[in-house]
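Duplicate of #3305? Posting structure anyway:
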């Protein structure tokens, strides 16, 4: 039903119903939800279950690939975040997004998951370009994207953030995959 991508320390795989409690607990943390566009705070388990069902039902017909980021068995086999590659519209470029749960911050897992998405975009989607963005009050995400090879476009826009229930300034980034 979707890719299973293995890296040195991580497994990226499609979400399953058993992931819903961890998704709700980790993503629903205000410090995570406020840095994403579509994650509510709080995030009740039934909402996470519905999200998993919608992702699984639409996998083959959607330009959206959302994957659980899990440490490999040798690293404990725990869910530690989510990562995805998607198109906002059929005409738009592929975009990546991710979040890592607070207990796993500072270990380089966002960079490792991001590189897996870049490789997937290049090798499986033949994407010539991918985009990303981050809220301007989340410089750590900007540093991760820069490490991966993204560059700021100089464009910014206000995006509604469900976790904040407010608009926030988002900085746009881009990567040419042929040059990566």
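Output from current build:
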């Amino acid at each position: 039903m979707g890719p299973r991508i293995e890296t040195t320390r991580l497994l990226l795989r499609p979400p399953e119903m058993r992931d819903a409690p961890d998704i709700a607990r980790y993503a629903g943390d205000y410090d995570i939800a406020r840095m994403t566009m579509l994650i509510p705070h709080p995030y009740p388990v039934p909402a996470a279950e519905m999200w998993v069902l919608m992702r699984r039902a639409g996998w083959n017909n959607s330009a959206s690939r959302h994957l659980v980021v899990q440490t490999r068995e040798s690293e404990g086999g725990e869910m530690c975040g989510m990562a995805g590659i998607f198109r906002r519209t059929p005409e738009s470029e592929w975009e990546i997004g991710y979040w890592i749960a607070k207990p796993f911050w500072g270990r380089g897992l966002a960079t490792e998951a991001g590189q897996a998405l870049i490789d997937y975009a290049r090798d499986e989607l033949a994407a010539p370009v991918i985009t990303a963005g981050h809220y301007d009050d989340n410089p750590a995400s900007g540093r991760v994207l820069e490490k991966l090879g993204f560059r700021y476009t100089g464009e910014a826009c206000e995006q509604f953030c469900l976790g904040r229930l407010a608009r926030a300034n988002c900085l746009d980034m881009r990567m040419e995959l042929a040059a990566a």
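Confirmed duplicate; merging threads. The chain has one domain: 5-130. The domain at 5-130 is CATH 3.40.630.30 (Aminopeptidase).
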